[in-house]
Write a structure and sequence with these properties.
tRNA binding, 338 residues, elongated, binds phenylalanine, single chain, ATP-binding
């Protein structure tokens, strides 16, 4: 009886009060359920008369709750206007922006397209053959180590792993086609590194491959030189330093004159005036042969760069983690260019 009156009197002023009502009466440990529990232990005689009262009480509580809920739902946060002015202009669309890595990838692709390179794609889950063995990695090479590679499945002679570079796409391309090849391979790659401002467990690369008759190191240099002028502006200087990759011989790393201080010295280039942007070299004849290509007849060059590194240089971004945090304050600073 006491509760029935309470329900009748209930006249909430806010949706919070309606919620409090629900919690008091209607949840699993609420009053309605409690009374039904007590009901179980009364005598059969009483049950007959009480049952009806109890059911009515339950219905009353539920109906009241529903009615009150509707009252506040239709009130909503914004009071309904009697008449909308239909001549008012609409609210304008908010456009999203392109992710900086997508912007830079697109720029890189466009430049190489002008030189006749096509875009090739391959799986992110790779086998040992395409990621390492075909690329001339010796069996005990440290890059195969658990510390660098995320292995998915151990498999006799051909483990399955997340690709550590997009060079695997070069192998697939050469295995499945005939020279000449002229392609770039943008894609995500994975390495087992602790996440910090300067390293991440995944990042993005663009690799390139050019295989034909009489391809020389001069072709490699001129192609990359042109690329840098297009991407970073005329007058950007390049230098090649000898390096080592299992799949190229000779190999080099390419530096450009620091885009921030223009060679004057700054924290980005650690006062050297130069920043490394990619690895490159002439495709090792072993790799060509592993992919079924006659290394007597054909030669080629390959290169690979990290998109994050290039984006950092172009936009002066100092923390890699920004790329994957999805913070709109960061992302909205970039163009909405489609
Ligand atoms: N695959 C190399 C890397 O991931 C980059 C590279 C590609 C170097 C092609 C030389 C030639 O570091």
């Amino acid at each position: 009886q006491q509760y029935t009156e309470e329900i009748e009197r209930f006249n909430p002023q806010s949706s919070e009060e309606v919620e409090a009502f629900r919690l008091r009466f209607l949840v699993a440990k609420g009053i309605v359920r409690g009374l039904f529990e007590e009901f179980k232990s009364v005598s059969p005689d009483e049950k007959r008369s009480l049952g009806k009262v109890l059911n009515e009480f339950k219905q009353a509580a539920e109906q009241k709750y529903k009615a009150m809920q509707e009252r506040f739902a239709s009130a909503g946060p914004r009071p309904k206007q009697a008449a909308e002015d239909l001549t008012l202009p609409g609210e304008g669309f908010v456009f999203g922006s392109r992710h900086p890595l997508s912007l830079v990838r697109k720029e890189i692709v466009e430049i190489f397209k002008k030189l006749g390179f096509i875009v090739a794609d391959g799986p992110e889950i790779e086998d040992d053959w395409h990621n390492f063995t075909a690329l001339n990695f010796p069996p005990e090479h440290p890059a195969r180590d658990m510390q660098d590679t995320f292995f998915i499945k151990k498999q006799e002679g051909n483990d399955i792993a997340l690709r550590t570079h997009t060079s695997s796409v070069q192998v697939r391309m050469m295995e499945n086609g005939k020279p000449p090849f002229r392609a770039i391979m943008p894609g995500r790659v994975y390495r087992n590194e602790a996440i910090s401002a300067r390293a991440h467990c995944f990042f993005h690369q663009v690799e390139g491959l050019y295989v034909d008759e009489n391809v020389s190191f001069a072709d490699l240099k001129q192609t990359l030189y042109y690329f840098v002028q297009e991407l970073f502006g005329d007058g950007t200087q390049v230098r090649f330093r000898p390096s080592y990759f299992p799949f190229t011989e000779p190999s080099a790393e390419m530096d450009i004159s620091c885009t921030i201080c223009k060679g004057q010295g700054c924290t980005l280039c650690k006062n050297t005036g130069w920043v490394e942007i990619l690895g490159c070299g002439m495709v090792d004849p072993n790799v060509l042969e592993n992919c079924g290509i006659d290394s007597e007849r054909y030669s080629g060059f390959a290169f690979g760069m990290g998109i994050e590194r290039i984006t950092n240089l172009k936009y002066e971004i100092k923390d890699l983690r920004l790329f994957s945090e999805n913070d709109v304050r960061f992302l909205s600073q970039f163009d909405a260019e489609l």
